[in-house]
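Journal club side-thread
Mid-discussion, someone asked how the predicted structure for our own chain would compare to the paper's figures. Pasting it here so we can look after the session.
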Amino acid sequence: MKIMGWRPPQRPEWVKVYMRMPGPMKAQILLLTILTTSSVLSTGLQISNQGKNTLEGSILHSVESLEVGKGNGGLRLRATGRTTTEVLTNLKPMLKLLESPTSSEK
């Protein structure tokens, strides 16, 4: 149909085929399309999230350990690793306060 030389845009061929289908078949194709789309999107999101976690987890962390024992003069501490050693350095003054004798109770 032309109106003063203008012709409205035509539907794509797949729309024409879809419109010729019976009603129940349209519903099945619509549901299948929705299911396919949601499955693909869900799988894609899970894969992308798993990739991020794998990248974070694959970084090698330095080995750190802390050994605490009771020695003849008080607590004996042994630490390996920068973070653990730093924490122990900050805790040393507090440990000395805890080891010092408190006021005698009656």
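Post-session note: Residues 65-99 form one domain.
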